[in-house]
Write a structure and sequence with these properties.
By secondary structure, the protein is α/β, with parallel strands linked by helices. The chain has one domain: Maf protein (Alpha-Beta Complex). It has six helices and seven strands; from the N terminus they run βαβαββαββαβαα. Helix 1 links the parallel strand 1 and strand 2. The model has no long low-confidence stretch (mean pLDDT 95).
Length: 198
Protein backbone atom coordinates (compact mmCIF):
# COMPACT_ATOMS: atom_id res chain seq x y z
CA UNK A 1 0.00 0.00 0.00
CA UNK A 2 1.17 3.51 -0.75
CA UNK A 3 0.27 6.80 0.89
CA UNK A 4 0.25 10.16 -0.87
CA UNK A 5 0.35 12.12 2.40
CA UNK A 6 0.88 11.81 6.13
CA UNK A 7 -0.18 13.49 9.37
CA UNK A 8 2.59 15.45 11.11
CA UNK A 9 1.97 15.44 14.86
CA UNK A 10 3.66 18.79 15.33
CA UNK A 11 3.14 22.53 14.97
CA UNK A 12 6.84 23.02 14.19
CA UNK A 13 7.36 25.05 11.01
CA UNK A 14 10.87 23.59 10.82
CA UNK A 15 9.65 19.99 10.66
CA UNK A 16 7.07 20.98 8.09
CA UNK A 17 9.75 22.71 6.04
CA UNK A 18 12.00 19.65 6.18
CA UNK A 19 9.22 17.31 5.02
CA UNK A 20 8.48 19.71 2.15
CA UNK A 21 12.19 19.68 1.29
CA UNK A 22 11.99 15.94 0.48
CA UNK A 23 8.61 16.26 -1.23
CA UNK A 24 6.40 14.64 1.41
CA UNK A 25 2.83 15.92 1.50
CA UNK A 26 1.63 16.33 5.06
CA UNK A 27 -1.03 17.84 7.28
CA UNK A 28 0.13 19.38 10.58
CA UNK A 29 -1.82 18.15 13.60
CA UNK A 30 -0.29 19.58 16.80
CA UNK A 31 -0.68 17.70 20.08
CA UNK A 32 -0.07 19.11 23.54
CA UNK A 33 1.73 16.85 25.97
CA UNK A 34 3.60 17.49 29.19
CA UNK A 35 7.28 17.52 28.28
CA UNK A 36 9.11 16.58 31.44
CA UNK A 37 11.58 13.75 32.04
CA UNK A 38 10.65 11.14 34.61
CA UNK A 39 12.92 10.57 37.58
CA UNK A 40 15.99 8.67 36.43
CA UNK A 41 14.88 8.62 32.78
CA UNK A 42 17.82 8.62 30.37
CA UNK A 43 17.79 11.38 27.72
CA UNK A 44 17.49 8.87 24.82
CA UNK A 45 14.58 7.13 26.54
CA UNK A 46 12.92 10.48 27.18
CA UNK A 47 13.01 11.70 23.57
CA UNK A 48 11.81 8.32 22.31
CA UNK A 49 8.94 8.25 24.82
CA UNK A 50 7.82 11.75 23.88
CA UNK A 51 7.90 10.99 20.15
CA UNK A 52 5.89 7.80 20.70
CA UNK A 53 3.39 9.62 22.93
CA UNK A 54 2.94 12.39 20.35
CA UNK A 55 2.31 9.89 17.55
CA UNK A 56 -0.12 7.91 19.69
CA UNK A 57 -1.98 11.01 20.88
CA UNK A 58 -2.45 12.29 17.33
CA UNK A 59 -3.57 8.89 16.03
CA UNK A 60 -6.06 8.51 18.91
CA UNK A 61 -7.44 12.03 18.49
CA UNK A 62 -7.94 11.57 14.76
CA UNK A 63 -9.33 8.04 14.96
CA UNK A 64 -10.54 6.85 11.58
CA UNK A 65 -9.96 10.30 10.14
CA UNK A 66 -6.23 9.64 10.26
CA UNK A 67 -6.42 6.92 7.53
CA UNK A 68 -2.72 7.54 6.81
CA UNK A 69 0.58 7.36 8.68
CA UNK A 70 1.22 9.70 11.60
CA UNK A 71 4.75 11.06 12.01
CA UNK A 72 6.02 12.51 15.29
CA UNK A 73 9.41 13.60 16.57
CA UNK A 74 11.09 15.04 19.62
CA UNK A 75 14.43 16.82 19.86
CA UNK A 76 16.46 17.54 22.98
CA UNK A 77 19.86 19.08 23.64
CA UNK A 78 21.95 17.10 26.13
CA UNK A 79 25.14 18.13 27.94
CA UNK A 80 26.73 15.82 30.51
CA UNK A 81 23.52 13.74 30.60
CA UNK A 82 21.52 16.87 31.48
CA UNK A 83 18.58 17.68 29.22
CA UNK A 84 18.39 21.29 28.05
CA UNK A 85 14.75 21.78 27.07
CA UNK A 86 13.02 24.94 25.95
CA UNK A 87 13.97 27.93 28.12
CA UNK A 88 11.18 29.56 30.14
CA UNK A 89 12.72 33.05 30.05
CA UNK A 90 15.74 35.03 28.90
CA UNK A 91 17.75 34.33 32.03
CA UNK A 92 17.40 30.58 31.58
CA UNK A 93 18.19 30.84 27.86
CA UNK A 94 21.38 32.81 28.57
CA UNK A 95 22.39 30.27 31.24
CA UNK A 96 21.87 27.41 28.77
CA UNK A 97 23.92 29.07 26.06
CA UNK A 98 26.74 29.93 28.47
CA UNK A 99 26.83 26.31 29.63
CA UNK A 100 27.03 25.10 26.01
CA UNK A 101 29.74 27.63 25.08
CA UNK A 102 33.14 26.07 24.44
CA UNK A 103 31.72 22.55 24.86
CA UNK A 104 30.44 19.69 22.72
CA UNK A 105 26.84 18.67 23.34
CA UNK A 106 24.53 16.05 21.90
CA UNK A 107 21.32 16.69 20.01
CA UNK A 108 19.01 13.69 20.24
CA UNK A 109 16.05 13.40 17.88
CA UNK A 110 13.60 10.53 18.01
CA UNK A 111 11.30 9.94 15.03
CA UNK A 112 8.23 7.71 15.24
CA UNK A 113 5.86 6.64 12.48
CA UNK A 114 2.43 5.28 13.48
CA UNK A 115 0.95 3.10 10.71
CA UNK A 116 -2.12 0.88 11.12
CA UNK A 117 -1.65 0.63 14.88
CA UNK A 118 2.05 -0.22 14.59
CA UNK A 119 4.95 2.00 15.61
CA UNK A 120 8.28 2.23 13.82
CA UNK A 121 10.99 4.36 15.39
CA UNK A 122 14.49 5.73 14.86
CA UNK A 123 16.85 7.71 17.05
CA UNK A 124 19.55 10.04 15.76
CA UNK A 125 22.35 11.60 17.77
CA UNK A 126 24.42 14.53 16.52
CA UNK A 127 27.38 16.15 18.28
CA UNK A 128 27.54 19.94 18.15
CA UNK A 129 30.53 21.95 19.35
CA UNK A 130 30.03 25.61 20.29
CA UNK A 131 32.80 28.18 20.39
CA UNK A 132 33.27 30.15 23.60
CA UNK A 133 30.37 32.53 24.18
CA UNK A 134 30.17 35.82 26.09
CA UNK A 135 27.17 36.62 28.29
CA UNK A 136 26.46 39.88 26.45
CA UNK A 137 26.38 38.10 23.09
CA UNK A 138 24.02 35.47 24.51
CA UNK A 139 21.69 38.18 25.81
CA UNK A 140 21.69 39.96 22.45
CA UNK A 141 20.93 36.66 20.71
CA UNK A 142 18.04 35.92 23.06
CA UNK A 143 16.58 39.36 22.35
CA UNK A 144 16.20 38.41 18.68
CA UNK A 145 13.46 36.05 19.90
CA UNK A 146 15.06 33.04 18.26
CA UNK A 147 15.87 31.22 21.52
CA UNK A 148 12.19 31.04 22.46
CA UNK A 149 10.69 27.58 22.06
CA UNK A 150 14.01 25.99 21.03
CA UNK A 151 15.64 23.08 22.83
CA UNK A 152 18.96 24.32 24.16
CA UNK A 153 17.91 27.92 23.43
CA UNK A 154 19.30 28.06 19.88
CA UNK A 155 18.39 27.44 16.24
CA UNK A 156 21.20 26.06 14.10
CA UNK A 157 19.37 27.12 10.92
CA UNK A 158 19.06 30.74 12.10
CA UNK A 159 21.16 33.36 13.87
CA UNK A 160 22.42 30.64 16.22
CA UNK A 161 24.51 29.17 13.38
CA UNK A 162 27.35 31.55 14.34
CA UNK A 163 27.84 29.67 17.62
CA UNK A 164 28.55 26.34 15.91
CA UNK A 165 32.23 25.53 15.48
CA UNK A 166 31.68 21.92 14.41
CA UNK A 167 28.81 19.55 13.66
CA UNK A 168 29.14 15.77 13.59
CA UNK A 169 25.89 14.22 12.44
CA UNK A 170 22.76 15.54 10.79
CA UNK A 171 22.02 19.22 10.22
CA UNK A 172 18.33 18.38 9.70
CA UNK A 173 18.41 16.27 12.87
CA UNK A 174 19.59 19.26 14.89
CA UNK A 175 16.80 21.29 13.28
CA UNK A 176 14.30 18.71 14.53
CA UNK A 177 13.84 15.98 11.91
CA UNK A 178 16.75 13.84 10.67
CA UNK A 179 15.85 13.32 7.04
CA UNK A 180 17.92 10.17 6.45
CA UNK A 181 16.13 8.25 9.20
CA UNK A 182 12.77 9.87 8.43
CA UNK A 183 12.93 8.92 4.75
CA UNK A 184 13.82 5.34 5.67
CA UNK A 185 10.76 5.06 7.91
CA UNK A 186 8.50 6.63 5.29
CA UNK A 187 9.85 4.36 2.55
CA UNK A 188 9.15 1.27 4.66
CA UNK A 189 5.54 2.41 5.11
CA UNK A 190 5.03 3.19 1.40
CA UNK A 191 4.80 6.96 1.80
CA UNK A 192 5.51 8.81 -1.45
CA UNK A 193 8.23 11.45 -1.49
CA UNK A 194 9.74 13.81 -4.04
CA UNK A 195 6.19 14.93 -4.88
CA UNK A 196 5.84 18.23 -6.70
CA UNK A 197 4.14 20.93 -4.68
CA UNK A 198 4.50 19.07 -1.38
Amino acid sequence: MTYASIILASASPRRSQLLAQIGVRHEPFPVNLEERPRAGEAPADYVMRLARDKAGAAASALGRRANRPVLAADTEVVLDDRIFGKPVDEAQAVAMLMALGGRTHQVLTAVVLHVDGRLQAALHCSRVTFRELAADECRRYCRTGEATGKAGAYAIQGFGAVFVERLEGSFSGVMGLPLFETAALLDTAGVLRWQAGA
